[in-house]
Write a structure and sequence with these properties.
GO molecular function (chains A, B): phosphate:acyl-[acyl carrier protein] acyltransferase activity
Order of helices and strands of chain A: EHEHEHHEHEEHEHEEHHHEEHH
CATH topology of the largest domain in chain A: Isopropylmalate Dehydrogenase
Strand content of chain A: 15-25%
CATH superfamily of the largest domain in chain A: Isopropylmalate Dehydrogenase
Number of helices of chain A: 12
Pathway (chains A, B): Lipid metabolism; phospholipid metabolism
Enzyme class (chains A, B): transferase
Pfam families (chains A, B): FA_synthesis
Largest sheet of chain A: 11 strands, mixed
Function (chains A, B): Catalyzes the reversible formation of acyl-phosphate (acyl-PO(4)) from acyl-[acyl-carrier-protein] (acyl-ACP). This enzyme utilizes acyl-ACP as fatty acyl donor, but not acyl-CoA.
Largest interface: A-B, 56 and 56 residues
Helix content of chain A: 40-55%
Number of domains of chain A: 2
Oligomer: homodimer
Chain lengths: 344, 344
């Protein structure tokens, strides 16, 4: 694929600011990234939301009807709405008309649509959702997976997450020598619940995983790890907790900083600095979620995404296509004899 | 007990700022709270660290030799050092010379010493460590348990955590009508891993638990729940993550706020407001950990505790003694026929 242009199917109808912000991000990506965009959604709404509709000429419009709302149950809604934008986008990948999907819609629906339409990669028992978090080191992020697709995991699922996380970190997030950690409650290999103790040993023995040890809660955002694997229950709790803590801190700042006359004056002076702080703290402005292990590339942007996040998500999708991550994961499972998971 | 003065054994040697800050906190507690203090530690070091040794006359000194360092393995160290301050303090409770223990030392060692010396309460399968977190609502906290004592839990353990958490919230933390939540990845009763689904149903059916439903990661610090129960693996990850996030945010503030000339000037003007923000964000200044389910009252203050935290921990211990929480937990397990845990 390397030599051809990546073709990205963008779900124009997914997210709080769809279609306007999605379309803006997609138009910019087309202009700057050298990708082909297939914009999936309701053409009337897309045209109405585009200030300069002439820009749409560069994009291919693929009609779809409706979308899956955030409060809808994924599976039944996907079945009831076969022409929903996320279904149509996944079908484009299935029919090899596109190489990847980008959506800011319902992440559970996107995962379910990917599974129903594209299926799993060979060798992968359970796909995972990976979330990219900022760390305390500016410009360094950490990929955490699984953040919610699999709430009860066997050891080998986490081992597969680690293999896929390594490949995504290297080829999509651009980390040359990624370091992989296992979320746990202590540093020693004997620490943790049954699952963690068993996974620790498997990761140590797997040559495809540059495992550097356990990551405690306090290490997750330290910048020391490029990838942290965990089961989807813990990962989801952590993801939602992190988002809420970010918001909570910003609320405390808003409440306390302007207290008193000096507070008001000082806060005025600090406006640009506070904006930078908000950007660093606010998870919504960062990355997005990657679906790993489905037989297609899919990047799920945050529901509150505006054009820059959509642009960024398209960039991630392009990296994944250009660097052939799916083929690399497949190759891993053909050449490496995976250590058999005990208890299986 | 209600009419008599609570007798609190204070581990003078535990924590980063022991014995000086511990002694200062204990002296203040003696003066202000109407409690009797048994100060456990090395008398020479205690006297040397006390600016006005005359203040020690009001306290009873109980000699001990050594302490368990933060990097020591709890069980073997406790056995090797029978006269370590935490062992001596627990023994005072065992011999009914004290009603409660307060320590800022190694929390794992405190838990192990409590189990070895005092044992479990009748009806409690596994004691838990409860941590008090600040919430986004000023002056409202949330008790999270277990944060690390039990990494693999059966459903009935979490049910017992909920019963004990309810009693501690009401009688120690002073919440008249506590609301209890189960840490989970969705609101619906069907959501979660096997453990969460089963515990959800047990909590709904338990009349001793004012259960209001699942708490997602984003709800933990919302102030909506007074108690959140979870297994010790997830709880420990969350606790350490929360502490690190607090520090990370304060670091970002320190880095970004004073950028540029206006930034420096504005930051100067905001000094008192920033101090308040630090207090609200910094977990170390809050609560501490409660050991729930052991046959004695124990409050573990943060290792970095200074005198105000020690004072606060002694106040919590006094509340627990005055309100007879152990007797209340026991009563719960004598009068309520607990629903049998399936899978046992």
């Amino acid at each position: 694929m390397g030599a051809t242009r990546a073709r990205i199917a963008v779900d124009a109808m997914g997210g709080d600011h769809a279609p306007a912000e999605v379309v803006t991000g997609a138009i910019r990506a087309k202009a700057e990234l050298g990708v082909d965009i297939l914009l999936v959604g309701d053409p009337d709404q897309i045209y109405a939301a585009t200030p300069q509709p002439g820009n749409l000429d560069q994009l291919e419009l693929v009609p779809a009807e409706g979308t899956i709302a955030m409060d809808e149950e994924p599976l039944s809604s996907l079945r009831r709405k076969p022409k929903a934008s996320i279904n149509v986008a996944m079908d484009l990948v299935k029919r090899k008309r596109a190489d990847a999907v980008v959506s800011a819609g319902h992440s559970g629906a996107a995962m379910a649509a990917a599974l129903l339409r594209l299926g799993r990669l060979k060798g992968i028992d359970r796909p995972a959702i990976g979330a990219v978090f900022p760390t305390v080191i500016a410009d360094k992020s950490v990929l955490i997976l699984d953040v919610g697709a699999n709430v009860d995991c066997r050891p080998k699922f986490l081992e597969q997450f680690a293999v896929m996380g390594t490949i995504y970190s290297r080829y999509v997030l651009g980390v040359e020598q990624p370091t992989i950690g296992l979320l746990n409650i202590g540093e020693e290999s004997s620490k943790g619940n049954d699952l963690a103790v068993r996974v620790h040993q498997m990761l140590q023995e797997n040559p495809a995983v540059p495992f550097i040890g356990n990551a405690e809660g306090r290490d997750v955002l330290s910048g020391q790890f490029d990838v942290v694997v965990c089961d989807g229950f813990v990962g989801n709790v952590l993801l939602k907790f992190a988002e809420a803590v970010g918001e909570a801190v910003l609320n405390i700042l808003r409440e306390e900083l302007p207290q008193g006359l000096r507070g008001k004056a000082g806060t005025m002076m600090l406006k640009p600095n506070l904006r930078r702080i908000k950007q660093r703290v606010d998870h919504a402005e960062h990355g997005g979620a990657l679906l790993l292990g489905v037989a297609g590339i899919a990047v799920i942007s945050h529901g509150s995404s505006q054009a820059p996040s959509i642009f960024n998500a398209i960039r991630l999708a392009k990296e994944a296509v250009d660097h052939e991550v799916l083929q690399r994961i497949q190759a891993q499972y053909q050449k490496v004899a995976m250590p058999a998971a005990d208890g299986e």
